[in-house]
C-alpha cells in the first residue's frame, strides 16, 4: 500500500469516528442537551470530515459538509434554535453525510436528489436564522439536472466585489485575562480546508482582540508557492474566559500550525524605551545575525536579558525552513521572536498531559498475536503435565517455576484479550439511523433508548452482533409497536419506546431488546404456525413454546410482503447467528405491555474457564460460568419417574438429573446416580438442572477452537479445545443439553408432582 492510500484509509477510519460523534451529539441535542460543548462537538465532527475530504478532492462530500457546517454554525452562535424540526433535518443530513463518506470510500454513488433536497432544507434553516427568505431550490432538488456538483451556496454567481465588513458585532466583552497569541498556519492546515479567518473570528468572540499580521516571510511573486503558508498572526486578547477556552478555539488546527498562547501580566502604560542599552544591544545583534546562525555574544557579562536573546536566535523548525524565503528578508519582528520562544514544536506548547495515547494496529496482527498466545497456553499446560507425569515433585523448584509460568501466561493472555475488548457502543451507534428509517417506513413514532453502551466484549463478537440486532430492532418496531392511533386508544403515548441494554452477567454479555408494544399475540402465532404446517393442530404448547415459534424458518405473521417483513426470514436468522456465537436467545412477553428478547453471548470466542470432567471414556469441558456447585447424590435424594427420568433433591428443591453420557451418545445405559458427581448448573433462562458425570479432573482455562468451522455442528457441543496431553476435548453446550433432556411439555412439573407424592 502506497503512502497516499494509507493516508486515505486513515481518513475514512477517522470519518467513522467523527460520524459516530456527530450522531451521538445530535441525539443528545434531540434529548434536550443542547449545551455549547455538545453543539461544538457536532460542529467539529462535520468540520473535520470536510477538512479531510478537501485534501482528497471529494467535491460532493466537501460541498454537503460545508452547507451542513454553515447550518451548525448558526446553532453555535445561538441564532438557530435546536427545535425538534431542526434536529430531525440535521439527523437526516448526518445520514446523508455518512452515505457520502461510504460512496467516497467504496467508489459508489450517493442519492444526489435526496442530498440536494437536504441542502435546500439546510440553507432554509440558515435563512431562517438570519431572518431572510429561503433560497430557491437547486436544479437537482427540483428534478432538473446538473453538470457535476452543485456549488450554489445561496450567494449568487461567483463574481466577486470587495465590500467593507463591520465585525464589531462579532466582538465579545473584554475582561481581566489578557493573552498574547502567536498563530502561524502551516500548509497542512489549508490543505485540510481549515481557514485562518474562521479561527480569528472565534477569537474575536471571546473578548476584545487586536490582530496584527506579519508578512515578512512572504516571498516574491515568482518564488511564491500557491499551496504555501507565509502569514503569522499576533493577537492581543482581553477576555473574561480562562486559558482553556482560548485553547479550545485552536483545537482543530493545533497540530497544523505554530501556536503560542501566553498570559500577559498587567504592566505600566508606555512602551519599552528603545534607548535602553541592554534592549538596544539585543535588537542590534538580532538584526545583524545571518539567517539561521547564532548571534554573537555581547562583550559585557551576560545578564538577565541574555536568555531572551538566546531564545530569539534559535534555528527555525524544519517545516518553516521548507517554505521559500525572499532574497533579502527583513529583520525578524516581535511576533517572530515570540514564535521562536514557543520552541517551534508545532504544538504551541499545548498541554498533552492526561490525553490517552493510542495507536492504530492492523486487526490481523492482533488476531495472530491471540492465536500465538493460545498456543502458548496449550504448550504451557502440556509441559506442566508431562513434568508431573515424569515424577517431578510438586514442591521442587522446577514445579514452582511451572506454577509461576502458568500465572505469567494467564496474565499475558488476559492482557492480549483486553486489546480486542471493545465497548458495544460501536454497534449501538448504528441503531438510531435504523430506527429512524424503519419508523418512517412503518409510519410509527419511535424513540430509541440505549443503556450499557460502554459494556466491553471481544471484537469478534461485536462484529457479528450487527445482523441479529438489526433484525430484532426491525421486528420490535414492525411487529411489536402499535400504530400511533392504536396506542392512543390503548391509553399509551403515541411514541413507542424501543430499549436496547447491554450488561455483564455471570461471565457473559447479555443484550436485551424490549418494546412497550402490544406483546406477542400467542393465539395468532399458533394459528399461523398450524396453517404453515410448522406444528400439528393438536399440539399442546406452553406460552414459552408458543413464543419460540417465531424463530422457526419460514414463520411470519405479516399479512402481506413489505420492505420490512412478510417473507418468513429474520428471526430464524437471528437464532442461528446467535447460536453460531455460542449464545442463546429467549423471549418474555406480556399482552398489552410489550416483549423482551434476551441474547446471552460469551464475552470472547477465544478462551474460557472450564471444569474438566470425565463422561464415559471421554473428557468434556463444562463452562465454569454455568456451574453453581458440585455434589455427590445419595440414593435417598434421587427420585425416578416416567421411565428413565430422574430428579435429584438439593436441600429443599427438586431438579432434573441429566445423564450427560447418555445425552451425548457416549452410552446407551443409564448411569448410576450415586456412582458419579452431580454438577448443579443454571441455564440462561434461570432454570436449574444437575448434570451427572463420572468424575471431575480439575479446573483450568482452555483455548476455544471452533468445532463447526473445522468439523461440523454437533448437538449439545459448543466448541472444542486441546488439552495438555494433546487430546481434543469437547466443550459442553449446557443450555442445549438441558433443553434436549426435558420431556416435551411438562418434564419438570410432572416430576415435581411425582416427587411430592
UniProtKB/TrEMBL annotation:
Q: Where is the Histidine kinase domain?
A: 354-605
Return the SUPFAM superfamilies for the record.
Answer: ATPase domain of HSP90 chaperone/DNA topoisomerase II/histidine kinase, CheW-like, Histidine-containing phosphotransfer domain, HPT domain, Homodimeric domain of signal transducing histidine kinase
Q: Name one GO molecular function term.
A: phosphorelay sensor kinase activity
Residue ranges of every copy of the HPt domain listed in the record: 1-104
| Keyword Signal in record | no
* Pfam families found in the cross-reference section: CheW (PF01584), H-kinase_dim (PF02895), HATPase_c (PF02518), Hpt (PF01627)
Look up the EC number in the record and give it.
Answer: 2.7.13.3
Chain positions with Phosphohistidine modification: 47
Q: State any GO CC term.
A: cytoplasm
The identity of this protein, by name, is Chemotaxis protein CheA
Amino acid at each position: 500500500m502506497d503512502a497516499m492510500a494509507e493516508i486515505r484509509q486513515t481518513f475514512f477510519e477517522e470519518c467513522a469516528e467523527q460520524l459516530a460523534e456527530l450522531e451521538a451529539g445530535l441525539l443528545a441535542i434531540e434529548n434536550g442537551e443542547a449545551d455549547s460543548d455538545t453543539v461544538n462537538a457536532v460542529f467539529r465532527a462535520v468540520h473535520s470530515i470536510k477538512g479531510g475530504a478537501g485534501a482528497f478532492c471529494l467535491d460532493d462530500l466537501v460541498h454537503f459538509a460545508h452547507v451542513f457546517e454553515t447550518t451548525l454554525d448558526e446553532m453555535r452562535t445561538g441564532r438557530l434554535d435546536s427545535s425538534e424540526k431542526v434536529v430531525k433535518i440535521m439527523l437526516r443530513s448526518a445520514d446523508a453525510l455518512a452515505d457520502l463518506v461510504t460512496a467516497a470510500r467504496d467508489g459508489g454513488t450517493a442519492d444526489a436528489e435526496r442530498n440536494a433536497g437536504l441542502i435546500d432544507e439546510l440553507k432554509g434553516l440558515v435563512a431562517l436564522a438570519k431572518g431572510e427568505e429561503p433560497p430557491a431550490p437547486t436544479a437537482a432538488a427540483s428534478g432538473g439536472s446538473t453538470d457535476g456538483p452543485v456549488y450554489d451556496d445561496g450567494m449568487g454567481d461567483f463574481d466577486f466585489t470587495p465590500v467593507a465588513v463591520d465585525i464589531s458585532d462579532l466582538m465579545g466583552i473584554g475582561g481581566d485575562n489578557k493573552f498574547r497569541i502567536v498563530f502561524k498556519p502551516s500548509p497542512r492546515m489549508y490543505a485540510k480546508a481549515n481557514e485562518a479567518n474562521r479561527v480569528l473570528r472565534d477569537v474575536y468572540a471571546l473578548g476584545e482582540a487586536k490582530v496584527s499580521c506579519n508578512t515578512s516571510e512572504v516571498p516574491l511573486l515568482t518564488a511564491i508557492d500557491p499551496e504555501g503558508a507565509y502569514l503569522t498572526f499576533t493577537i492581543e486578547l482581553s477576555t473574561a474566559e480562562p486559558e482553556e477556552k482560548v485553547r479550545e478555539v485552536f483545537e482543530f488546527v493545533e497540530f497544523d500550525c505554530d501556536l503560542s498562547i501566553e498570559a500577559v501580566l498587567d504592566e505600566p502604560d508606555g512602551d519599552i524605551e528603545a534607548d535602553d542599552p541592554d534592549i538596544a544591544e539585543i535588537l542590534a545583534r538580532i538584526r545583524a545575525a545571518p539567517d539561521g546562525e547564532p548571534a554573537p555574544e555581547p562583550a559585557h557579562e551576560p545578564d538577565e536579558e541574555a536568555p531572551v536573546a538566546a531564545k530569539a536566535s534559535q534555528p527555525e523548525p524544519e517545516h518553516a525552513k521548507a517554505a521559500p524565503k525572499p532574497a533579502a528578508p527583513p529583520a525578524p519582528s516581535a511576533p517572530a521572536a515570540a514564535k521562536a520562544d514557543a520552541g517551534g514544536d508545532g504544538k504551541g506548547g499545548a498541554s498533552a498531559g492526561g490525553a490517552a495515547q493510542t495507536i492504530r494496529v492492523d486487526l490481523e496482527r492482533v488476531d495472530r498475536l491471540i492465536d500465538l498466545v493460545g498456543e502458548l497456553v496449550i504448550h504451557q499446560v502440556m509441559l506442566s503435565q508431562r513434568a508431573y507425569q515424569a515424577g517431578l515433585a510438586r514442591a521442587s523448584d522446577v514445579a514452582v517455576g511451572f506454577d509461576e509460568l502458568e500465572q505469567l501466561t494467564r496474565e499475558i493472555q488476559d492482557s492480549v484479550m483486553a486489546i480486542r475488548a471493545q465497548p458495544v457502543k460501536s454497534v449501538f451507534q448504528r441503531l438510531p439511523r435504523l430506527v429512524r428509517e424503519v419508523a418512517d417506513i412503518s409510519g410509527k413514532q419511535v424513540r430509541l433508548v440505549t443503556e450499557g453502551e460502554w459494556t466491553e466484549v471481544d471484537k469478534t463478537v461485536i462484529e457479528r452482533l450487527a445482523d441479529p440486532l438489526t433484525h430484532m430492532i426491525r421486528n420490535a418496531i414492525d411487529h411489536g409497536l402499535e400504530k400511533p392511533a392504536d396506542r392512543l386508544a390503548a391509553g399509551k403515548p403515541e411514541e413507542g419506546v424501543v430499549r436496547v441494554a447491554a450488561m455483564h452477567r455471570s461471565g457473559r454479555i447479555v443484550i436485551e431488546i424490549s418494546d412497550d408494544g402490544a406483546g406477542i399475540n400467542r393465539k395468532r402465532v399458533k394459528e399461523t404456525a398450524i396453517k404453515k404446517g410448522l406444528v400439528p393442530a393438536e399440539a399442546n404448547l406452553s406460552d414459552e413454546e408458543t413464543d419460540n415459534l417465531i424463530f422457526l424458518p419460514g414463520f411470519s405473521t405479516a399479512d402481506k410482503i413489505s420492505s420490512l417483513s412478510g417473507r418468513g426470514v429474520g428471526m430464524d436468522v437471528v437464532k442461528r447467528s446467535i447460536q453460531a456465537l455460542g449464545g442463546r436467545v429467549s423471549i418474555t412477553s406480556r399482552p398489552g405491555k410489550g416483549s423482551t428478547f434476551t441474547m446471552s453471548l460469551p464475552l470472547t470466542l477465544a478462551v474460557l474457564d472450564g471444569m474438566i470432567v470425565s463422561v464415559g471414556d471421554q473428557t468434556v469441558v463444562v463452562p465454569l460460568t454455568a456451574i453453581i456447585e458440585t455434589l455427590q447424590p445419595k440414593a435417598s435424594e434421587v427420585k425416578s419417574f416416567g421411565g428413565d427420568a430422574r430428579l435429584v433433591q438439593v436441600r429443599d428443591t427438586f431438579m432434573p438429573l441429566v445423564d450427560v453420557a447418555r445425552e451425548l451418545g457416549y452410552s446407551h445405559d443409564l448411569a448410576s446416580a450415586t456412582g458419579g458427581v452431580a454438577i448443579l448448573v443454571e441455564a440462561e433462562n434461570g432454570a436449574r438442572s444437575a448434570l451427572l458425570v463420572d468424575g471431575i479432573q480439575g479446573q483450568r482455562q482452555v483455548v476455544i477452537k471452533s468445532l463447526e468451522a473445522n468439523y461440523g455442528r454437533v448437538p449439545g457441543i459448543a466448541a472444542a479445545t486441546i488439552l495438555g496431553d494433546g487430546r481434543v476435548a469437547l466443550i459442553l453446550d449446557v443450555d442445549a443439553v438441558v433443553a434436549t433432556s426435558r420431556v416435551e411439555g411438562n418434564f419438570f412439573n410432572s416430576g415435581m408432582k411425582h416427587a411430592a407424592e
